[in-house]
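[recover] target loaded
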């Protein structure tokens, strides 16, 4: 079907829904079900009757059995704005693309079988495509933004309806990672230009010297409910390095000479763990979903399990 998904995978994704816990949804009725209670005919729950409630919402059958008044709560059908923001900086092009081995130009390397490609940008493309298709299939307004440098450099959407899925996949397949991203500035730029607030799902490796907190504040200040999907490749989590080596920053090209031995690897693992814990704690304090992802994990498991546990999809 495409290099990103096959038909079977798309059918699985169509069983899911993006979840908004706080953000205000739009006025146009969609196919999704909100977590807030409204006025549709779909039953959601009961609560005790309180003075002033509309008597037409009393469940008289329950009252006849229990002799206690209960109000029926109904689910509201509504559309949601989903903003999927993909970090397109050079550090996301890792492990380094070996396109030359295939006789292809950079960015045209065939995608590995579903779920088995540790390359961060291609992994991010799949996550963005999966989340986008879930939103489109349930009638949400979906936009995908590409972040590079200090701004939004390209954008697909916003569009609604599953009929847009092929166009979305083709757009994503044509993108590549390059340059250096200032997450603070790029997220601020999207907050200003991104349109109606909604779910903001940021897919990034978080390698931004200036950090991300100001950009996160800008998104939340605009009214977005934010989720950060933090991607790291397996060899970034457990580098297979030893001896005296020179490391080159993939974005700034700055060199760093280091000696890697057992003590250095232990220190690296400790600092990586502390960094992720610090990110997770800060996000929790700001009511932001934070999901740490090893791109060695099948991306389907991130969608079907990790994001479900985080309450981002159901």
């Amino acid at each position: 079907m495409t290099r990103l998904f096959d038909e079977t995978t798309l059918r699985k994704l169509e069983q899911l829904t993006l979840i908004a816990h706080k953000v205000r949804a739009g006025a146009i009725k969609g196919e999704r079900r909100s977590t807030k209670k409204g006025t549709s005919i779909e039953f959601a729950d009961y609560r005790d009757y309180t003075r002033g409630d509309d008597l037409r919402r009393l469940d008289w059958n329950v009252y006849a059995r229990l002799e206690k008044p209960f109000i029926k709560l109904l689910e509201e059908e509504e559309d949601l704005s989903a903003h999927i923001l993909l970090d397109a900086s050079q550090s996301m092009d890792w492990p380094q693309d070996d396109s030359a081995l295939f006789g292809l130009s950079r960015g045209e390397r065939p995608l590995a079988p579903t779920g088995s490609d540790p390359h961060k940008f291609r992994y991010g493309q799949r996550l963005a495509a999966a989340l986008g298709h879930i939103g489109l299939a349930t009638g949400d307004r979906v936009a995908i933004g590409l972040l590079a440098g200090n701004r939004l450099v390209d954008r697909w959407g916003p569009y609604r309806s599953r009929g847009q899925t092929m166009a979305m996949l083709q757009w994503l397949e044509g993108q590549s990672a390059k340059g250096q991203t200032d997450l603070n500035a790029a997220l601020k730029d999207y907050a200003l230009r991104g349109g109606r607030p909604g779910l903001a799902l940021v897919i990034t490796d978080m390698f931004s010297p200036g950090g991300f907190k100001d950009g996160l504040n800008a998104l939340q200040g605009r009214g977005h409910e934010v989720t950060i999907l933090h991607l790291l490749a397996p060899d970034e989590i457990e580098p297979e390095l030893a001896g005296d080596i020179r490391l080159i920053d993939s974005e700034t090209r700055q060199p760093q000479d280091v000696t890697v031995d057992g003590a250095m690897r232990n220190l690296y693992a400790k600092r990586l763990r502390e960094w992720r814990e610090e990110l997770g704690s800060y996000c929790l304090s700001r009511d932001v979903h934070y999901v740490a992802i090893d791109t060695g994990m099948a991306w389907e498991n991130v969608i079907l399990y990790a994001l479900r546990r985080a309450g981002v999809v159901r």
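[recover] notes: The first strand starts at residue 37 and ends at 38.
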